[in-house]
Amino acid sequence: MSVTTVFLLVAIGLLAGILSGFVGVGGGLIIVPALVYIMGLGQHEAQGTSLVVLLLPVGILAVMNYYRSGHVDVQAALIIALAFVAGGYLGSKWSLQLPEVAVRRVFGAIMLLGALKLMLSK
To answer: What angle do CA 92, 97, 98 make, to 5 degrees?
Structure first.
């Protein structure tokens, strides 16, 4: 795995962790699209890899299915998971320093951008 790839995976993990701690989003909204659009993974591999990050206790059975089908990048998932922990800490610290209405607006904007991307993509 190249240094650039590791850097991108750490960035994805940090972003997902920060946004998870900040507004409660991460796996489906951040990690999956980032793995598809930045890392070039297929949708199934991105979903499987994201589920490994969130493996315990949330998605153990789903991860087993994706792993058996060969749609899990374990190395990428571990790197993202480590960065996610740090990002979750930072995001929660930042979120708690802002008024609730500001955090709600950030969350809404993230959800809107995700929805628009889904609706407008082929």
So the answer is: 105
CB of 53 closer than 8 Å to CB of 20 = no
pTM of the model: 0.71
Asked if 72 and 63 count as a contact pair (C-beta separation under 8 A), the reply is yes
Are the C-beta atoms of residues 81 and 14 closer than 8 Å to each other?
Answer: no
Going from N- to C-terminal start, the domains of the chain cover 3-120
Phi, psi of 104 (to 5 degrees): -60, -40
Could you read off the pLDDT of 55-100 as tens digits, one per residue?
Answer: 776 678 878 888 999 999 999 999 999 999 999 899 989 988 998 8
Cα(59)–Cα(70) distance, integer angstroms: 16
First-to-final CA distance of the chain = 30
Torsion (CA) 8, 103, 85, 31 in degrees, nearest 10: -40
Tell me the C-alpha distance between 33 and 52, whole Å.
15
